[in-house]
Amino acid sequence: MVKVVLWGALRDATGGRGEFDMDAPTIHKVIGTLSADYPELEWQLENNVSIAVNGQVYRDAWFVELDPDAEVFILPKLQGG
Amino acid sequence: MAEINRLTKDSGFKVVGTRPPRPDGIDKVTGKAKFGADMFAPGMLVGKILRSPHPHAKIRSIDASRAEALHGVKAVVTAADFAEKVPRSHQATLHNIMAHGKALYEGHAVAAVAAIDNATAKKALSLIEVDYEPLPFVIDVEDAIAEDAPLVHEGMITRGMDPKPEKPSNIESACEFGHGDLDAGFAAADIVLEREFRTEASHQGYIEPHACLANYSDDGNSELWCCTQGHFLVRDTTAPLLGIPVSKLRVTASEIGGGFGGKTVIYLEPVALALSRKSGRPVKMVMTRDEVFRATGPTSSSYMNVKIGITKDGRITAADALLFYQSGCYGGFIAQLGAMSAFACYGLDAVRSRGREVVTNRPMQASYRAPGAPIINFAVESLLDELAREINMDPIEFRLKNAAREGDRSSYGPVYDQIGMVRTLETARDHPHYSSPVPAGQGRGVAAGFWFNFGGLTAISLNVNSDGTVTVSVGRPDIGGSRAAMCQMAAEELGIPYENVRCIIADTSSLGFNDTTDGSRTTFANGLAIIEAARAAIKNMCGRAAKMWGIPEDAVAWEDGCAKPSGPNAGDFDPMPISEIARKAPNTGGPIAGHYEVNADGAGVSFGVHIADVSVDAETGRTTVHRYTVVQDAGKAVHPSYVEGQYQGGAVQGIGWALNEGYFYGKDGKMENPGFLDYRMPVASDLPMIEAAIIEIPNKGHPYGVRGVGETSIVPPLATIGNAIRSATGVRMTEVPMSPPALLAQLDGFKQAAE
Amino acid sequence: MSRLQVNTTINGDEIDFLCDPGETLLDVLRNHLGLTGAKEGCGSGDCGACTVNLDGRIVCSCLVLAAEAEGSKIETIEGMADGAELHPLQRKFIEHAALQCGICTPGFLIASKALLERNPDPTETEVRYWLAGNLCRCTGYDKIVRAVMDAAAEMRAS
User: Chain B within 8 Å of C42 (Cβ-Cβ)?
Assistant: First the structure.
C-alpha cells in the first residue's frame, strides 16, 4: 500500500485526517482517489501542490510511477525567487 | 584573495567547467543591450498610474472626466477595464494590479492614464478625482495578529487551522510540519533555550525598475515587451486579466536588470495593455524608484519564536519554531516555505515548525531569493549559536553532530536522499578562513543554510545551421549570465567549440511553455533539456551519416563533433564533421533539429555554510565586514565564474539585509524610505572580497550533476553576521536589520568577548 | 513653455538637441538621442546607473538638467570602445565575469575609466571608494573590483 501524507492546510477538507493508505500505481491515481473521497481537495491537488515521492520532489508529474510501498508527501507548491 | 576550491575531480569535461566569455557580454559593456525601458515604438504613449495615498480606504467613486478631457490624454483605465471573472489563481493579481473598490496599501494602483508625454500624463493624474473613505489600517505583524486588530479583509477565517477559528482575523493561513515527540525531546534535553526574533521587510533591490511596452492590435493580436523573469508567465497571467486568449498575446523578454524573484509577478503589463487597447496606440510604462518600493513585492517582515533543546554533549533533542510572516495585503506561500526550511539542515527526532501567513496594509509580498528561508534561518542559526556557546562547543562541530544525512527524515517531511550538508560543513571547517586566527578587535560567526531548488516546465529547441553552427532557443530569461552555461552544455554534448553555439531567449510564440527563471533552476532545467535535445540531434545526424555511408544507424557513433563508424567492422570512413552533415542536410532529410519538452524534476537540494569576521565601532554602532567566505555545493559548476558570482551576490544581499535594509513606516502607514539613500544597500566600499568555495557533489538528477545555486547563498548571511557580532561584542541581536542605531541601543559599553 | 536648443559634443560628435527646461540630461540621452546605455535606476542620484562623463567629471545625468550641458563634452558608454576595439576595462569586465544582469555595467565602466585617468595605479580601497557611488545588486562587487585592477595593470604595462 502506498502511504500518502497530506500537509496541514489541506486537512481542512478531510476533516483533519492527514494519512492515507491506498493502492495507487501513479501520482495521478493518488490525486484521483483523494479527490473522489474529498471533492474540495481536487483543485488544490491539481494546481497547488508539490509531491515528494520517497524524498524526491515533483511539481506537476502525474504519471510518475509509484513502488507498492512508496511514501508520498503532498506539500505546498514549492516556489523560488 | 579568493581561491576557488573545486573539491571533486572533473570527469572528462571539455567545455563544462571552463570560463569562456559570455555571449551577451559585448552588448552589455557597450550599452547596446536592450532592457525593459530601452524600447520605443512609433506613436508611443506614456502610461502612468494613480496610486492610493491611504494605506487602507474604501474607494467610493472615481471621476476621471477632467483627466479624459485634458488635451493629449488618450485613455484612462480603472478596475472596470479588466476582466470580471478570472481563474482562481489570478484573483489576487487582478486586485493587486488595480484596486477593486478598496485600496489595500499606500501605493495601491487605483487608475492609470496614457498620454502623449510624461508631463501630460502627470497632469492628468492630478485631475482624477477619487473619493476615498479612509479605514483603520494595520502595518506591523504583531499589531496585525493582536486581538482587536483592524481587519484587512472582512470575514477572513484562517485556512489550515485545526480547529477552525470562529473569529475572522488577519491570519490568512496556517501550516505545520515536523515529526516526533516534542515533549519527550525537551524533557530529555540538558539545556533548553527559547527566544523571540523579529525581522523587518526587505526589497530585492534590483537596479532596473519595472518597465514594459504594450501594443494592442484591433484584431486582438498583441505584443508586449517587458523585463521579466518569466515571459510565459507574463503572457499566461496578463491575457486572462484582459479577457483575451493566451495565443493572442506575444511576449518578448527584454534583457532584465535584476529580478531576484521580484520580477516573477506582473504589475504594469496588464495596465499598459489595457491602456493600449483603449487608446489604439502603443503604451510604454516605466516605474519610478519610489513606485518600486511602495508598490511592488518586498519580502515579509516577521515575528518568530524558536525553542531548541540540546544534551550536554551537543545533540539536539527537540526543536520548535513558530513563525508569523506578514505578507502584505494578500497572503502567499512564504510562511509555508519558511516553516519548511526552518530546520532542514538537521537530522532531528523531534521537530515542529508552525507558520502563519499574516495580511497587513502593505504591498503584496513577492519572492526574494529563497523566499521565507533567510528570515527563519536568522532565528534558528542564532539560537544554535547561543546553544553551542552554552556547552563551549565549536559551532561547526556542533552542526556536524546534528547535520542532516542520507536517510534522515527532513523536518518538512520527505526522507533525504544523498545530500551535501556534512561535506559542506567539513569544507568550511577545513577552509583557511576558519583556521586562521581571528584578528584583534574582530569577531567570527558561522551559519548554515538550505534551499530546495526546483525544476519546472521547460521547452527548448536546438537547430543545426547550414554551416554546422548551432542555435539553441530557450524560454527562460537570462538574469545572470546563464546563456554562457547553455552554450557550454550544448557544445559539450555535441563536441563542438563553444564559439559555434548561440543561445537566444525566444518569445512566447516560438516555444512551448517555460516556467520562470527562479527557483535556482535555469541551468539545471534548461541544461537538462538542452542535453536531451542535443542527443536527439546527434541521433538524427548519425542517421544521416549512416545513410550516406550505407551502413546501419547503430553502426555510427558521435565523437568530437563528428559522426564516425562505431568500430572497424562498421566500415572505413573518415569522420564526417557536423558542418558537412549540415551542408548536406537538405538532401538527406531536411533541416536538423532537436527539441525537448519536459517537466524537469530531480533538482537537488543544496546547503551552504558562511563564515564572517566583523568588527563593530563602539561609538557609531557600525559593523564592518572584514572577511567573508561562502561554502556551497553546486553539484557541477558549469561556468565557475558565474557560480562564484551567485554565491557572492546572494551573500552581499544577505549582508545588506542583516545590517541596514528595512522598510520604515510612519504612524500614517506610509513608507518613509522609498529610495536608495535611505533604503541602504551595500556599496563597494562597505565590503571586502567575498571568497567563494565551490563544492561539487553531483546531483544524480542531471546528466552533468548540476545543482541549483542561485538562492542558497542568501540564506545564511543574516545569522552569520549576527553570530559574528555576538563574537565581537558579546551582544546577541535578535532583530534585523542590525543597523548602527539598533546596535548602539544594545551595546552597554564595548565588550570584547574572549573567544 | 518653449523648448531650448542645446549644443554639445557627445562621444566626439557635435550634437544639438531641443529640450524642455525641466528635462534632465538622462531624459534627453535616452528618449531623444537614442543613447539608451545610461540607465535610470532611481532618478535621485543614488545608484549611479546613469553615470556619464561631463567635461572630464563623472556625474549622475539624472541630476543634470539637459540645458546645463550647453557647450559641454559628454562621454557615454556608447563612446567607450574605439570603433570595434573594446577598451581594456570593457574586456576585463567580460573576462572577470564582473557583470551578471548588466544594468549597472555602463555606469561602472564610465566611473572606472574616470578613476584610471586620474589614478592609473589605485589600491583596492581606492577603487572601492571611487565606485561607492555605483550600486550593483548582482555581483557583490568582488569581480568588478578585480576587473578594474586588472585593467589598470594592463593599461600601465602598455
Answer: yes
